[in-house]
Amino acid sequence: MRTVDAVxxxxxxxxxxxxxxxxxxxxxxxxxxxxxxxxxAVRTAEVAAPGxxxxxxxxxxxxxxxSPVVRGLxxxxxxxxxxxxxxxxAHALDDGRAAVLHRTPxxxxxxxxxxxxxxxxxxxxLVDGWDRIRDPLLDALFSPLPPVLPAVRLLRRLGLxxxxxxxxxxxxxxxxxxxxxFRGEGGGLLLTGNAMHADVPPDAGxxxxxxxxxxxxxxxxxxPVPVGGAGALAxxxxxxxxxxxxxxVTGTRVDRVHVARRRAVGVRTADGEHVRxxxxxxxxxxxxxxxxxxxxxxxxxxxxxRDLERFQWDHPTFKVNWALDRPLPWTADGxxxxxxxxxxxxxxxxxxxxxxxxxxRVPRRPFLVLGQMTTAxxxxxxxxxxxxxxxxxxxxxxxxxxxxxxxxxxxxxAALARVAPGFQDSVVGRHVQSPxxxxxxDANLQGGAINGGTSAIHQELFFRPTPGFGRPExxxxxxxxxxxxAHPGGxxxxxxxxxxxxxxxAANGPTGTVRRALNRTAWDRLLGDGGRPRPVA
Length: 537
Fold this sequence. Notes:
By secondary structure, the chain is an alpha/beta fold. It is built from 18 helices and 18 strands. Helix 1 packs parallel to helix 10, helix 7 runs antiparallel to helix 8 and helix 8 crosses helix 9.
C-alpha cells in the first residue's frame, strides 16, 4: 500500500488548484484522474478537422482571470499565456443588429447608446459601481463561508445604502434589473445572455446578479482564452504541481474512499490499488457521486441521504463544434470581432427558452452561446479559417438517439444561419457533443450538466451542495469536497479546490484538534438524532 499525505481525486481545475496549495505547504500529494488527459472540463483536441483545435468543454475564462486564487499561482511561469478577441461579447439579433460589449467601457457605452438614449451613461454608472467594490466582492465570493473579513471590507466600501442596493440586486430577476437600468434592449440583451450561461431563468430571483457579475467581469478582465487551447490552462496547473513535488496520474479511476472511525484514511482504485492518506482526501467529484458512490450510502446519516435525493442538477448542455474554411458571415458587423456571440433569441425569447426547459421541452428556437476561437486566438486553426462552437441547454431526461442528436443539430444550425446566412457552405468538419457524450468524457458532467449542480438560490451559499455550512468539510474527518458542487460553484476560478485545501491544512495545523471536534459537533447537530455517520467496517 502506497502512503502519501493527501490524495486528490480528479485532475480538473479545482483538483489541480487544491493539489498546488498542498504542495506549496510541503505535503506529499498524489492526484488520481480517471481520464487519460488531465484537466476535467478544461481540455482541447482536434476533433472537427485536422489542424482545428477545439475546446471540448469550457473555453473563455473571465473567472480565472479575475480570481485571486488563480492569479496567485503565477501560472505564466509554467507556460500559460492569455489572449483576447478584439471585442468581448456580442448579442446578434435576427434583424441584423448586435449589442456589443467592447474591451473599453467607453466603447461599450457608445454602442448601447444606439439602443436607448442614456443607456451609455447607465452602463458607465454600472462600471463605476463595480470598480468601487470589485476587490472586496471577489474576495468575499471566493472565500470559504462565512467570508467575515472580506464582507466587512465590502460593507465599509458600500455603506448602509449601498449594501442594501447590493442585497436587492442579489434577489432581482435579470429582466427586472434590465428594465430598471436601461431604456433600450441592448443592455438587457447583454445582461440576460450572460445570466443564461447559468441555469437560473430570467424571471427568477438571483438571475440579475449572475448577469451583472459576468458582464462586469467581461468589461473588467474580458473573456480571455489560453493561447493554444483551454488545455494549456490545465497543462500549466499540472506542471506547477509536478514542479512542487506532487504527482499527477491519469487513466486511474478511484472507486472507493476508505473510511475508518469516521475518518477518511485513503482510497481504492478500480484496478484494486490502495493508497493511504496520512492527512486528507480531497475530492474534485460532484457531491452525489462522492457521497453515494465513493463513500457509500450505507455510511451516510439518513438526513444526508435524503438531502442528496433533493440535489438538483443544472440544465444539460448540447454542443456543436465546427471547422470552417472562412470566418462566419455575420449580418451584424458587431459580431465579427467578438470572441463570444449570443444568438437565437431576443429578450422575450429568453423567457420562452427558460419556460421550455422548465417544462421539459426542447426549445424550438434555442438560445446559443457561440465561441469564435480563432478570432480570439489565431493559433486555433489555419490562417483565414475559423474554429467555432456553439452550445445550448436542453431538458433533462431525454434519450439522445441518432435522430434526436440530428434534430438538435438542425435547430442549432438554423439559429446560426439566421444571423450568419450561408455559413453551412464553409463547414469542412463538424463534431457533436450530446449530454451523453459530455458525461462519457468527464464523469462530473452528470447528464451533460456542466456546473456541478443548479445555480438557483435554493442550492447556493449555505445550501450548496445540501443544506449545511457551505464549506468543504464533510461529516468525515479528513474528507473534503473540492468540486464545483461546493461553494462558490461552477467556473474555472479554482476557489472550490483552494478552499478545500485551506480547510485540510487548517485541520492539520496547530488548532487542528479543536477544528475537527467542532466540525464533528456541528455536523451532528445539523443532521439531528442519529446524524453521525454509520460505523461500517
